[in-house]
Structures are given as structure tokens and as C-alpha cells.
Amino acid sequence: MSDRYELFLTCPKGLEGLLIEEAVGLGLEDAREHTSAVRGMADMETAYRLCLWSRLANRVLLVLKRFPMKDAEDLYHGVLDIEWQDHMVPDGTLAVEFSGHGSGIDNTHFGALKVKDAIVDKLRTPTGERPSIDKINPDLRIHLRLDRGEAILSLDLSGHSLHQRGYRLQQGAAPLKENLAAAILIRAGWPRIAAENGALTDPMCGVGTFLVEGAMIAADMAPNLNREQWGFTAWLGHVPALWKKLHTEASERAAIGMNKPPLWIRGYEADPRLIQPARNNIERAGLSHWIKIYQGEVGTFEPRPDQNQKGLVICNPPYGERLGDEASLLYLYQNLGERLRQACMGWEAAVFTGAPDLGKRMGIRSHKQYSFWNGALPCKLLLIKVNPDQFVTGERRTPEQRQAEREQAAYDQAPTEPQERQYNKNGNPIKPAPAPAPVVEQARLSEGGQMFANRLQKNLKLLGKWAKREGVDCYRVYDADMPEYSMAIDLYHDWVHVQEYVAPKSIDPEKASARMFDALAAIPQALNIDKSRVVVKRRERQSGTKQYERQSAQGKFTEVSEGGVKLLVNLTDYLDTGLFLDHRPMRMRIQKEAAGKRFLNLYCYTATASVHAAKGGARSTTSVDLSKTYLDWARRNLSLNGFSDKNRLEQGDVMAWLEASRDEFDLIFIDPPTFSNSKRMEGVFDVQRDHVQLLDLAMARLAPGGVLYFSNNFRKFQLEDNLGERYAVEEISDKTIDPDFARNPKIHRAWKITAR
């Protein structure tokens, strides 16, 4: 066998440049880049060294033969011509991987089968012994790559992919492969920082992949030192003495590195479920005395144990797949930027993200960006130097101005003359007051974001006075006032509920997303609300009962008030919150008219109108709805206000309930859904088709002199003309719209109906 071999080193897309530098440093000669691979020449010692030390490669393939191929027969005979008895025993196990197509091979499974057949036929003995297939742990793993009529047949020296180091047996939902994590660390300059005894921290460490890979680099530990099974272990061309020599050298280097004083390497993770798996992974890697993991949110991580330490902050924040995710992630990235500006001055930072637009929201400029691929997802590595000249904050200032401000602040904080020590009345020294916490500047809004913020502040100023006067602490502050920012924003005491209307197909999705991020960045600043109290949902046309389906399961209720009534809202679990803000005038009307009356609330939802009726002194209230969930919610609303007796809650289909009821009511409120096909009701309810029947049934239950209020929010709804022949019908829509919905008078329509 030759002393020099052709090697192919495969890697994730985008790592080729880094891999060729690494491979040449480990001894690869005549190296050339290919897509997701590096090719070169090496002796056996170098091939082993690449297996042991490459932090970036997936596989090390030793080329056995190249041959031209026109069809499947050429493939078979090309493989058959190899002296396979030099490579494996006749009864060994085999796995074949095939890539490429052409030359009559359009199916990789068929190609792999032909390769397998040739090897088996070559090794079959007169006694019937032959290799068998083992796709998991074969003695020999063979690769054949078909490239423009040439077959390249290789032996996989690595066995399992080299990114599988063996320490990460537990992982989170979206882990980075170990070799990609190593590549990011190298691009971020960690080898240089580690050589200078710098620190490493990951504020969103997951199961600790960045930290383990970083510690192995710092400790000069071969990434695959502890791997037991290799692709060459059962290969007959294997040279055990040469491998043992290289492995011993690597073990000695690791021992020297591990005996050095450990660097300060810390990870922080918000999800408590990942803390123990991360610690287990670190322990398996033998790095427990180097790496510490703590539970904490991004805003709590403290990267420096003393004032003089510097290092690298590295993280892979989530990218977000649904809009609600992206909205919350915006604040995650903003919090990360704030923490860097506040606690990491003079450090370097590396943020790996599949959502570069989110990276721009951190309020710090990146000085370099690198493109990577995380599987099939294009990503960016943002490299940041954490110093004030890179900050993008609310006010545009020159570097000179910033420096002058820092000097002035230092001068202002320094005592003008030595301070005498102060003592209390007992003679004990008084501790000096702590230095004020550094002020974190808000990231600067884009031009569009600032315009949006200005509109919000204007609306808040106008509506805030009205709301205070009316005793209302939940109201709509914005409703697509600016068409390009198509959303509804509601204040619920000290919470903000945002509903994004789906952009029309004519709008570029990227532009729509960027505007959404602009708006979300502006909302906390404009409304003076903490970012953690902003809830975002997407409102789009719903099918069936989807509108009422649970979206989350937090079960968190917030108390709000209007007109002297306390109500519970849930901002997270459903598309709607449990309180229709646009019906506030109707609820207030019911409260004023309810004294001494029997009140019926049909399709009651969370029975907020019933609570108002009870507050107004109703003799009794009856609330009917099909949903047990909403009736339980209704019970809590009534109880919150001290109402329980004389307040009936009836579960059932409204139409069926009305047909069966013989009770009379003085005041009736009906706000039906546009459409309902609940499994618990007979047939399907359509407000346009069925409203006449509904109103006839309800009017039959109305006592002499009583009033029925009917409303709905179906934009195309038309009240049947002949109803006016049987009843006195008055449309009162304009009287049921408060100032916060004045921009959208079609939010609902309402009628007052009485007997003739």
C-alpha cells in the first residue's frame, strides 16, 4: 500500500475556509477547497491526526480508487477490482453510503446496493462466508461519490461523524452541532482570547456546547480524545502502534492543559430543565472544574468576577418560527444588548443568529459578520466589540462627545477632596453610599419606529385623560392608525396586548416583519411599560372554532377595572382576552338600566355584562354559554365583585335553551358569534342566517316593557327588514362606540329592540 493517500474531509457548508486552515496546520498537503469538503494528500500519521484533532470536520475519507463510470456495470466492476481482502475479513460487517447521480444511477439506494454486491462477491468464500450489513456500527464504512462520470471510492476512517464527541448525550430543542460551535468560537477569536487567559461566558448556554468546545480549545484537548470506536478500528490497513503513539501524545497534552489554572468559563440558562443535562455533559467531557452553570435569565447574568477581567460573550439566541416567538425574541435580543452595554464594557461578543434583523435590535453595531449554515438555515455570526463607540442608542453623538461625557461622569463621581470618615452615634463607621448603577441607554429607534412611537405617545396622552376620567384602566390605544403598522394595541392596566393584523399579500413579508420589529421596539419606550409585560398575537381569519382554541397554557389572570367593576383577563392563553373592549359602552348602559330588573345574557362569554348588571342592582342575572371554561371564568368574575347569589350560570346551546325556557326577563343582551360549529351544539350557527330565529326566541322571553340589546361584529351583517314589522327596532351603533374605537366605527353594530 502507498505511503501517501488522497483524503477528503467533509464539513458543514460554510466551514470550508476554516477547515482548510486547520487541516494544513495538522499536516494535510496540496489542500484544495470543495463545497462542504477539503481535499488533499497525507500519510497515515496525518490521517490519524486529522481524525483525532479536527474540530471542524465531519468525516475523514481515505480514497481507495477513482475510476470512470458510464453505467451500473462499470460501477460494479470498478469496485470489484479492489483487493477487498486487504481491507476486511470475509465475515466482517459493512455499511455503504452513496452520493451523486448520473451514469444510469438515479437512485442512491440502487447505487449503494451495487457497491455492496461487488464487495460481497469479492469476499465470498467457498464455504459461503460473506460480509453482512450493519448500518450502525460496521467494521468498515464505505463511501462512493459520483461526480460527473467519475466514481470516487473511499474508506471512512472516522466511523461516526466527528462532530459526535461523546460528551453530549443530552441536548435541548435546537442544539448546535459540536463542530459548528467550534467553528463559531474560532471565528470569534476565542483561541487568541484563551491564550491571553481571557474569560468565556454564554448567557443562553442550553446544554453547554459552546462552553465545552471552548474549554477543550483552551485546555489543548483533542476533541475526539475519548472516542472509543473508529472507522479504522477493524480495518486491516490499520497501524495500531502509530495510532497509539498519536493518542498518547494527545493524552499528555490534555493532561498538561488540564493542570493549568482553569479559565473563568460560565454559562447561564433560563430553562431549569436544561441545567442538569448541561452539567452532565460537562462532567462527561471531564471539564467540571473549568465550567460552571447557573440558572438565570439573560438580564441576570454577570460576566465578570472583577473589574479588570475581559473576555468573550458568545451565544446562539433562538431565532423564532412563529410571530409570537419573534415578538418575544425581540425583547430577548434587546435585553442581551442592554446587558452587554451595562456589564461587559471592553469585552468582545459573538452572536450567532438565523434572524440577523433581530441582531440589529441589540443597540450595538457589529464590526464583522460571517455567513454560516446551521443545517439548511442560513445564519450570521455577528462579532461585536463592546465599547461606547459601537453603541446605537437613542441620541446620535460623535465618539468625541461620548468620550467627553465619560470623562465628565468620572469627574462628577470623584470626590473633590478627601472625605472624612463619618461615624454614627454609637461610634461605628458609616459605610459610604454605593455608587449609582450605570445608566443603560435605550437602543435607538429607526425613523419609522420613532414615527410610530410618536403616534402612540400622542394617542396615550389624549386617551389617558379620558380613561382616567371614566375610571377605565383597559382601553385601545392604537388601531392601525398608520396603515404600514397594521396592528391593534390595547392597554390592560400595566400590560400591553398587541394583535398584529396579517399583512396583505401585496406587502413584502420582510418589510412587514421589519416594521413589526420597529413597532415592538417602540412600544415599551412609548408607553413606559416593561418589555416583559408586552404580549403579542397574530389576528388572522380563523376557521371553525380556532379563534376560541387555547394558544398557551400559562393560566395567568390579570385584574382590570371599568366603571367600578373588577374583571379578570387572560392575555396569553387565547386569541381573545376575556373582555371585548369595544363593548364597554354597552356594558355601562346595562349597568345604568339594570336596577331591579331580571337580566339575561346570551352567548355570555365570561359574563362581564352580567357583572355590570349585578353592579347596577339587577334583581337577578342569568348567563348562558356553551363553554364550561368561560362559565368558570364568569363565576370568578362574579365572585371577584362579591356576587354569587341570584346569579345563574347556564351551560348549553343558546337556541335550545331559549326554546326550553319559560322564564321572563326585563333586560336581555345578545352578542352572538358570527359562526359556530361546536361539537356540543346541534347543527351550525350562522348569525346572518339565524339571527331572526334567535331574536324571535329571545323576544318571546322578554317581559312587557322590557328591552333587548342585540349586537355583533360581522362586517357584512344586514338586519332582516321584516323584524321592524314585528318589533320596535332602533340602531344605536354610534352610541356604543367610545373614543378609543372612534377610528374604527365598524368594530360592531348594535340595536335596541322592544315590543310594539
Question: What are the SSEs and their pairings?
Answer:
Layout: E1 5-10, H1 16-25, E2 29-34, E3 37-42, H2 44-53, E4 59-68, H3 72-80, E5 93-99, H4 108-123, E6 132-133, E7 140-147, E8 150-156, H5 178-187, H6 190-195, E9 199-202, H7 209-218, H8 240-259, E10 265-269, H9 275-284, E11 291-295, E12 311-315, H10 323-343, E13 348-353, H11 356-359, E14 368-374, E15 377-385, H12 399-413, H13 447-470, E16 474-479, E17 487-492, E18 495-501, H14 509-527, E19 534-539, E20 558-562, E21 565-569, H15 584-593, E22 598-602, H16 608-615, E23 620-625, H17 628-640, E24 647-651, H18 654-660, E25 665-670, E26 675-676, E27 685-686, H19 687-699, E28 702-712, H20 723-726, E29 727-731, E30 749-755
Parallel strand pairs: 5-6, 5-7, 9-10, 9-12, 10-11, 12-13, 18-19, 22-23, 22-25, 23-24, 25-28
Antiparallel strand pairs: 1-3, 1-4, 2-3, 4-8, 7-8, 13-15, 14-15, 16-17, 17-18, 20-21, 26-27, 28-30, 29-30
Helix pairs in contact: 2-8, 3-4, 5-7, 10-14, 13-14, 15-16
Function: Specifically methylates the guanine in position 2445 (m2G2445) and the guanine in position 2069 (m7G2069) of 23S rRNA.
Domain THUMP: 46-157
Enzyme class: transferase
Give an overview in words:
It contains 20 helices and 30 strands. Helices cover 32% and strands 23% of the residues. It has an eight-stranded mixed sheet. Strand 16 and strand 17 form a beta hairpin. Mean pLDDT is 88; it is low at 541-551. It is an alpha/beta fold. It has four domains: 5-156, VC0802-like (2-Layer Sandwich), CATH 3.30.2130; 178-219 and 260-390, Vaccinia Virus protein VP39 (Rossmann fold); 447-540, Transcription Regulator spoIIAA (2-Layer Sandwich), CATH 3.30.750; 558-755, 3-Layer(aba) Sandwich (Rossmann fold).
